[in-house]
Specification:
transmembrane, single chain, five-stranded antiparallel β-sheet, two-stranded parallel ribbon, General secretion pathway protein GspK, about 300 residues, alpha/beta, GspK, about 45% helix, membrane
Amino acid sequence: MKRVRREEDDETGMILVNVLMFVAIAASLVLLLISHEQLALDRGLRMREASRALAIVRGGELSARVALRRDAERQREQADHGREAWARLSESGAPIEGGRFDLAIADAQGRFNINMVRTGAAAPIVLFRNIAANAGATPEQTVRLIELVVATGPVTDLRPLRMAGVDPAVAARLERLVTALPGETAINLNAADPMLLTILFGDSGVAERLATVRERQGYLTQRDLEAERVTMPRGAGFASDTFWVRTRATIGDTSQQEAALIRRRLTGDGEYDAVPVERWRGAAIPPDAPQFAAPH
């Protein structure tokens, strides 16, 4: 009788162990299903946030395009500078439903357009040689840069030019003075770096005084050049057709960011338009795109 009872106890123990194993397996499956469902929900939420953020990013770009078009329609003098209405569109951490929004807008023609060397004209090549020398590039490096742009251009980004063997520190200084824009563009004196003004006028004193005038009144005019007894440098002017617009929207934990080059042009109907000619997203955004202002 004791042996039978022991066998029954052993069978009961085995059944209990099996039941516990089945319960453990079932619990694991339930947890796996819950985890998979949670991941799917999180993925769906992130996709919705990303779609909404991208729509806000494109909306910010559109508002900048409208402002640039209106500026072209209203301006009486052919001049563009940082105190116009379009330049005041910049936003830093602006609150939106579920997140925040940033916008940076800048004149893209405050630097020398490296694609100008592809024209074969002497003036832009001489100017680029001067700019490169002031940035610390050797004559050999400058020649390689020109050859690279002529052979592979028009370039849309300065980063590949570092493959020409230019020292990173030199490349960083060069990127303050040079950009890569589509078509032929002039340097806008109202947006040019003081160092670039010195190179253009060949006189640091003149450049410093013009920069001071520009800082005080917000822009330069022909009268300001005449007061310094200098003429407009070749390849320069007071107006621009190309602008940077960089936008970022953050919804929850999801962020979308784009940069676009906007070209302002006169249509066949005699109306002004502002259209994107290049776009970059995320990590592909070039280094010469404007940075977002620090949050207040």
